[in-house]
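Re: weekly structure request thread

Next one in the queue (575 aa):
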Amino acid sequence: MSSTPAENAARPASPPLLRKKRVCFVHLDLGIGGAEQLIVHAARGVKQNGHDVEIYTSFFDPNRCFPGLKLVEEGDSTPLEDGVVPVRLHGAWIPRSIRGRFIIVFSVLRMIWLSLVLAWKVGVTGLFASKHFPNGRPDVIVNDQVSHVNPLLRYLVRPARLVFYCHFPDLLLCTNRGSFLMRTYRALFDWLERVTMSDCDILCVNSEFTKMTFQFTFPGIKEDFIEEACDETADDVLDNPAGAKGDDATTAASESKDSQTTPKQKSSSSSGRGKYASIARLKVLYPPVDLTEVDAYLAREEDPAALASQMDRSVDPDGAVQTDSSETPTDETQARKVGAATGSKSPTSPDDTTSTDKEVYLASQGQLGDKILKEGHRFFLSLNRYEGKKDIPLAIEAYSTLEKENIGSPTSFPLLVIAGGYDKRVEENVSQHRAMVEQAEELGLKEKVLFLRSVPNLLRLHLLRNAVAVIYTPKNEHFGMVPCEAMAMKTLVVASNTGGPRESVGAVGGVLVDKHDSDGFAGGMRTILNLDARNLAQLKDLARRRVEAKFSLKSFVASLEHLINGEGAEEYELV
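Done, posted below.
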């Protein structure tokens, strides 16, 4: 049936399809972590929109990676399945460090090697990944984390557009600068970061908090940036959470708006390059949650046997796949060396491989796992890597404070699950785990705190879905994917009223605590426990809707597509 002219005029025009582009992602270590998840989401999303996509990295393990990736050797002509992104591995021969030192040196060296490989493919052979990019150089390069190679990518590979994604300024992540030697060592790399950060067409950050931190950290290159307004104001993103009025974040947001470049600055800056770097647009691009994966998990029946197997592996990950580390595990001898370097062990330490106490400890932990999986016992969840900056012991302290108030009903009071990424080669992971086991024992919580390491994905989703609440303890976290993943599962979050959680959790995703101590977090946990069924269900629905509106993969890919296609690009049709 044909349409009338009036109907045709009333119907909105279909958005045009944009030209197919060749897009290359460059990432240092393609393991399993938040940064890697973001790159995989971005690459797969762009590929699903019809673009040619590849990922270049210096580390990739096909047995420990996110789905939708395939390692492709040079000359390999095997057809890829639909939606699968090819991964090119170069520079794996360069070590990560020497005895745990010079990590940044080798990180930059590996990224330089990746950049030179790309430059050689384009400049010398005239071909760029001949099977997937038959027409030459990439149209767009997305460089992640390491800004030091931006000039190499920009001027040797010469893409039409270079996008750099900054998770957080690296110079702020290195806090060990006590000695003159360390300060001298870091000075060069800090200077290079300042110089190269804006040498791109678009600079993306993962939150408004990171954006404000960036503006205050790099004042010397502020005029090199044309500040582009975000889709939402900082006030809207923060949702004015309780206790946020008049605090540092509100002040910072106000100062951030005042510090944006004026029209005069834009006019003068846009005529040429800054002192060190080209003009770039600063954009907030929130890391996404793949709601398709979440909904698929919620729709299917769980496999008790698979969950039990993954629980056993996480209680005792020795010999199991290290799913949350970006590197492969070493042998048992090396693991003992790492453990020995971290200090004395508790008699019940699970890392004491020479004592039968380990079997007793693991049996006790196994019983707690059975309570959760087989008996459906309620639990709070802390999900973070075993690192000091995550402040996980605070969750144990807060739980202890709250547990003492409920001593009359020990059988029904929730347990506490401490879960997260763990690599037995990393001294900090081993020492943090041991210290928290000892902490739980000292607080009389040995039979109430379950420690899980390197949690496989199925068990991870189960924990996020069934927790009473997620206890997210990092202070001034850059963004934090865990709160968003929990909210997507309709699980509320207790987090610090600082940094990224103010944007992700906001006023509806749980409780933001003003006091970053055990009393503050215990109060947040108490608030959720005391919610009646009606209010709890309402908040859970609001939390899910918040993720759908602000942090979905679809909106992330749509924003990235506009960045790839340039300022003023028209709406496009998702295919």
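Residues 171 and 190 are 6 Å apart (CA to CA). The chain has a mean pLDDT of 76.
Next request, please.
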